[in-house]
Amino acid sequence: MSDSQASPVAAGLSLLPPPFTRWFTDKGWRPRAHQMELLARATSGESLLLIAPTGAGKTLAGFLPALTDLTHRGKIPPGSAFTGIHTLYISPLKALAVDIERNLMKPVSEMGLPITVETRTGDTPQSKRQRQRLNPPDILLTTPEQVALLIANGEAPRFFKDLKYVVFDELHSLVTSKRGHLLSLGLARLRRLAPGLKTIGLSATVAEPMDLRRWLVEQTPEAEHHAGLVTAPGGAKPIITILKSEERVPWSGHQAKYAMPEVYEAIKAHRTSLLFVNTRSQAEILFQALWNINEDTLPIALHHGSLDVGQRRKVELAMAENRLRAVVATSTLDLGIDWGDVDLVIHVGAPKGASRLAQRIGRANHRMDEPSRAILVPANRFEVMECQAALDANYLGAQDTPPVGDGALDVLAQHVLGMACAAPFDEDALFAEVTSASPYTGLPREKFGRIVQFVATGGYALKTYERYARIRKTVDGLWRISNPGVAQQYRLNLGTIVEMPMLNVRMVKRGAKGTVGRGGASLGKVEEYFLEMLSPGDTFLFSGKVLRFEGIRENECLVSQAFSLDPKVPAYAGGKFPLSTYLAAQVRAMLDDPQRWGALPEQVRDWLALQRDVSSLPKRDELLIETFPRGSRHYMVAYPFEGRLAHQTLGMLLTRRLERAGRRPLGFVATDYSLAVWALDDLGYSFAIERPSLSNLFDEDMLGDDLEAWLDESFMLKRTFRNCAVIAGLIEQRHPGKEKTGRQVTVSADLIYDVLRSHEPDHILLEATRNDAAAGLLDIQRLGDMLMRIKGHITHRRLDRISPLAVPIMLEIGKETVAGEAQDSLLAEAAEDLIAEAMGETGI
Amino acid sequence: MQRLALASMGIQDFGAISARTLVAGVEAVCDPLGALYLPETRVLVVSDLHLEKGAAFARRGMMLPPYDTLATLKVLEAVIARHDPAIVVSLGDNFHDRVGSAHLPDIFRTKITELARGRDWIWINGNHDPDGTVDLPGQSADELHYAGLVFRHEPSLISPAGEIAGHLHPAATVIRREKAVRRPCFATDGKRLLMPAFGIMTGGLDLRHKAMTGLFDRPNLVAHMLGRDRIYSVRFANLRG
Lengths: 844, 241
Known about the structure:
The structure holds two protein chains of two kinds.
Chain A: H1 6-15, H2 18-27, H3 33-43, E1 48-51, H4 58-73, E2 87-90, H5 94-111, E3 117-120, H6 126-134, E4 139-142, H7 144-151, H8 156-160, E5 165-168, H9 171-175, H10 178-193, E6 198-203, H11 209-215, E7 228-231, E8 239-242, H12 260-268, E9 273-276, H13 280-292, E10 300-303, H14 309-320, E11 326-329, E12 344-348, H15 354-361, E13 373-377, H16 381-396, H17 409-422, H18 427-434, H19 445-457, E14 471-473, E15 479-481, H20 484-493, E16 502-507, E17 522-527, H21 528-532, E18 539-542, E19 545-553, E20 556-561, H22 581-591, H23 602-614, E21 623-630, E22 633-638, H24 644-660, E23 665-670, E24 675-679, H25 683-688, H26 694-697, H27 705-713, H28 715-727, H29 749-759, H30 764-775, H31 780-790, E25 794-798, H32 807-812, H33 823-842
Helix pairs in contact in A: 1-3, 3-4, 7-10, 10-17, 15-16, 16-22, 17-19, 17-20, 17-28, 28-30
Chain B: H1 2-7, H2 14-17, E1 19-23, E2 26-30, E3 36-38, E4 43-46, H3 53-59, H4 68-83, E5 87-90, H5 106-116, E6 120-124, E7 139-141, E8 143-146, E9 149-152, E10 163-165, E11 170-176, E12 179-188, E13 192-194, E14 205-206, E15 222-226, E16 231-235
Parallel strand pairs in B: 4-5, 5-6, 6-7, 9-10, 10-13, 11-14
Antiparallel strand pairs in B: 1-2, 2-3, 3-4, 8-9, 11-12, 12-13, 12-15, 15-16
């Protein structure tokens, strides 16, 4: 804290009303410098971004300006004119809003402050929402979706007219997603409804604080504006170790089963442990593995996003009351929920990003002055290196949060419809409002006009829908909704989180004759595509149990208790994070520098040394490519270390090019670290005689026509389109339980995509889809950077046999799905039986 | 959309990409474009065109692309050109809703009139469009008995052998090595044949769905699946490998 900032702190202290000073004294606490600085600067009218590590009293800091102001205002006498809400607090998680209510009510009631605090989330009953509209609380704790709902209501001007503060919690995690885009537009509207409002953003350390500071305030065409910055000093450094197992670290895989005995010992040695994993299937497998060896029957629970809400709340409560010894969790627990006395975080699998690791480790010992304790458990050898790199990065305080990105067009379409639902709008005025939100400052006026047309009639070149328009421009020049049904439809489909079609999983009893009973407990939800692969009788792992699949009835998946410990179908994959660019660079640097291998376990060191002897290790900015024969095929393994998504895109493009060069590629597989392509031709020989040469094969021009051609038929683009179409309101989100039975009555987004692509390839929604795909799923930017980096730095090793470094990816072959194109070959394979039969019959 | 691409491709050897089968002793050819052709009587059967589906959704506030009718008619044109049938039977759900044929834009009406020139056209009524068609060539009927077969929209459980029906949009799923591929299909056990939905923007219902229960003699059931450029015929028992 510099001297120039000392005065705001003093100013903050002088602003604290007496009950606050007494309360701090009673608790034996001292207000922290950043809390006081924030209070002083916010009170003087600044919008602010507070960057502070977990445990720094961030939340209290965010609320202090509002609490102080409300204390000065005092209770509103009954019979006064309507008063709207004073402060809006927005959190990315429902659970977080609920948790904050608990934490905020404590000081409010202990100090006896005349302040009302309420939550409003998707779970809030209709009656309470109604009452909140008539008689709003002073502080409303809510989620981005609820904000969108509230501002799309005709009563919004009245409800928000007195709004002074908007507090955004975990802003760093909100802004990078489409939810953040929608929220930025909501904030632009709030600023219009309450011109004097101030924003306070609360954030963990981020790479680009300026992005967040701009996001918080109104942008104008003339200049860039940004909120003020308050930073809290970091707390004690965490103590992180990598699990050193007696067992052999596996070559590949993601389960870390080898380390379970040691993980269990660590749980036993601590009060409460949080075990983080990257996917839901890992969570299920880990949970089961722990219970298999849980001889002391320690209370160990499971928490992930697919589980039944009731069950999750139970776990959260048990955790808050310190009744659990361990919880196995996925990213649903990443964010700032306060978790009682966690004294150990165990991270199973590599964290994939340095920031994510820091965030998760922050969950242990939610107090700044005590160091957090964490153990990293790598699941395979590459992960050992990744964990070591992440560990180094955490000490360096490195950050790798993704950029905010340009505002998505599908989100804009949703917002435009919402604004028409609120009140008739003038197109130019709404454009000015929209471009005052930082993600949308660069939006061209013409594109905004196309979005309005899209909202009205779909914006098609073939104009046959005019008479069905959802919004119409009337004689006064304002756009208004055609009928009240439009607003109702908007409310039902609002939001930017598009879920895969999921089915509820319900436990039933099996009768003696195999009959299936009705109505047992609901366990949670699984993706429809996963269930399609199951036949009745198949067993799978879910909700910590081995379940027997009984069948699907009325949009529910019925299961019974299985009596086997060994599920036939392991589990289903959940969201996977790709390796972050920053961490990838760290891993490459480590490979290139044997000096740094000292921190690695001996078996990993030996592995790398062997690789150096029989092939070579990739230099920092070099791309190593190995070719070797195996069985009847020829393999090429490349080691770009750019994450699975970028590698998948690269794999698609390379196979296209090899195909064109007549090298007869058969398939490929991608991991976070490397990419393997196999072919009938001797690839090593082909590269040696430059047919094609490696520099041509890996030329950046693959991101031109090849990419376009591939994108058009890519299943990934279809998935992206589906999200865009739902968010933009072209098709409806499938609400579990409310959908009609049978598929023929719903419209598949894939079919719509195909029709649209073949008839109007320049449609605005296809543009939105391509933007999204390029930025997200395909990691094209990253691939482009990599191709540029390795230009002229490709090393080719022609080997007689597989190299040590290639073993992990070779083990993945057959496990990973090769995307879309190969589908017809599966059909051909299935049809072979009948062909053989037919041949037999005719005697050939 | 593979069918739209396939419809515009020249075909060298139709025998290699289609599948022949017998329904109650009547020879039938499954065309990969999703139509059934009966060579002896020169009847072409299509089912569940769901024309004007996009418009039907637009009427309810969801602005789906207005190109589905155009695309479906393109495929229909290709399959009619290939077989030059004497009779076209459209097996119901010809339009996605009751008002679909009345509101049909003129360009599409003209197209259908061209396609019907020089042949008979039977519109079987479906559950989506039970009132028949408005101002289009051909005749409407609830069912058709012809050449030893009965053509109706919804399969009837009490029907004797020789039924050609639609309505259910049958699709089959092949599973190999934990990967699933699902495609629309002709489903037949030699007695009854269910037609895949022909409309471009129509989905499918898996053969394992309970709505299919009792329709087929499963040991004899074969799914003739619509692949990218040919029919793949798979026994029901072999769908899951």
